[in-house]
Amino acid sequence: MGHISEAAQARPEADASASARREASTVHRVRRVLAIRPFRRLWGVTYLCSVADWLALLGLTGLVTKFTDSYMAQNFAFAGVVLTNLLPGLLFAPLGGLLADRFDRRKVMIAADLARFALLFSIPLVGSPIWLFVANFLVGSAAMMWIPSKDAAVPNLLRRPDQVETANQLGMVMTYGLAVVTGAGLYSVLTGVQTTLGLPQDAFGTFGVAYAVVFINSLLYLASALIVATRIPELSLRNVHPVPTNGAAPKRTEDEGEKPGLSAMIRDSLSFIRQTPLVRGLLIGMMGAFAAGGAVIGAAKPYSSSLGGGDASFGLLFVAVFIGAAVGLAGVPKLARRLPHDRLFGIGIVLAGLALILVALSPHLAVSLVAVAIVGACAGAAFLTGVTIIGSQIDDAIRGRVNAIYQSLMKIIIFGSTATVPLLIGLVQPRHVTVWGNPLTIDGTRPVLLGGGLLAALVGIIAYRQMDSRRTEPILADLRNVIRRRPRRVNGLLIALEGTTAADTETQAARLAEWLGTGNRRVVLAADPALDDTRLQAIVSGASLSSPRAQALAAAAVRADIVERDIQPALDSGAIVVMERFVDSPLAHLAAVAGLDAAELEGLADWATGRLRPDITVLLDSEPGAGAESTSSAQHHWRVQQLLTEMASSDPHRYVVVDAEGTEEIVADRVRTAVQAALVGKVKGLEPATVEA
Questions:
Q1: Which of 248, 246, 229, 367 is nearest to 309 (CA)?
Q2: Of 279, 201, 223, nearest to 3 (Cα)?
Q3: pLDDT in the model for residue 331
Q4: pLDDT tens across 285-301, in order?
Q5: What does the pLDDT look like over 188-205, one tens digit per residue?
Q6: Is 452 within 8 Å of 295 (Cβ atoms)?
Q7: CA distance 265 to 283
Q8: DSSP assignment, residue 657?
Q9: Strand runs (DSSP E) across 438-575, as ranges?
């Protein structure tokens, strides 16, 4: 199985700072991702290949119509080109996933691009309609090898796992936005040049312009292959952002260091899906959502006629669903700050199903337009969320196969449901009724859409129950955050122990973690990285950092790393994290020793930790003991204690002060009592009755 984690950012403060708002800005996120050179180049390659894909659809359709004068044959030309391009996705997409996980993804992409170039270039040279369809089928097969490798490689080009969502947004905008406009525009320019320049009809011959379109189309794939081969060597990277170790690793069927065979990889992927609720729920939800989407596509034209609006209503419904999808794709990152991805996916499908039910029952075009837009928004949000989960929460070793299965099932289900729906619609005899003075046709589209909506809602619930990683946290709290536009809190619980003496905080943190570990929540004990971590010592000594400000910056860097690498993933997985000397004690020590401004240090700590704050901070209040060997040491102790007390006084709801005088056992009992009193009735899954004080 692959590693799974919740890779979402938590913003505990409702009134986030200006830097946090900039981080949340769509423009800011896009700029940060596009600043990554390898991804920017891959984005350009995606543009070239997407333009080539759309241009191939139009160019081959135009070419095949010139091979025959039969009106009926020309009418089937478009369907034939689409079908031969779609069939490889139904048959060979899983193979593309196996290649992406087994071989160098960069080499797979290069080979696929060269194959597409050669196949398209050969079509005008052969000049046969049969070869056109065969070559188009093979081009689609090569695309099924290219897409899983590209999608699986994207997360390895990014600086942080949380950038996967923005990268997917950019990819969809390029593939289904800019590339569509460019491809259609380029085709119009190439085919219209003869008319625009006033040239004779036979200036380029019967096939001249059509052949030119196909040749240019093939050169786009050649350009893609050259760029991938010479400018993006990073596509060969693997496992750049390994998911945290709280998930399960892929099963190894071969000896360590040897690559498994294709049959073993197939068994591993099936076992991974069967044993991983996140992926299992993702595929279940996706199948229901795409079945409902196919029902909408197949029923769209007769449904628009049933509303009495004719072709105009069909056009409006078509526009509404795409506007809704664009809104959904754009809004996912903001929703993800208030709702975890695993919950967002299931809820999006459920809401899309409910909206589709409203479409089926709608008596008027205005109601249908709003409902269809909601369907598009929810479906777009669910699709982007699913792709983001695959890119950020699936181990790199199996990511290509999961992505290929996701893409393959999408095409199979949409194709199958789109082909089946017209048959189901034809089984129902149309009836004409009047609703609120408006004529309404009740035909087969209504029960089909109603069934699709019910199916989507049902599988959305199943997917939610399979994927939800926060079963101990009520969903209503997350939904209230969405409605109130408040950032969501992390899944887990962060408890910090602060004090003047490192030995005391270390001992009491270990005892508290041991006590909490007897409950029903996973407990993680984290140490202060700014005091004894070897990485910090190496940074300070290696760079000869003697300035207090430089040392504070180095400590902040190490602290940021442990928060992002260890603490945040543990919290997102629902664990209780007990950390000694999280922020307050180091701040107080630096302020007391170096005379640095406490407010400046707090701002630095906020930036380093992403404004992460403990749910509860236990402050150990003690007097200087045997460790205070001099008057200056005692004065430092009192100064640090004074600063810590001021921090506790400024935020009494988050702090509990515990008398640290006495034996370790006595102090540990006081800490347990204080924590239990502070959290009783507030955190589900942390019941005092489950542990013995």
A1: 367
A2: 279
A3: 83
A4: 888 777 777 777 777 77
A5: 888 777 666 655 555 555
A6: yes
A7: 19
A8: E
A9: 438-442, 493-498, 523-526
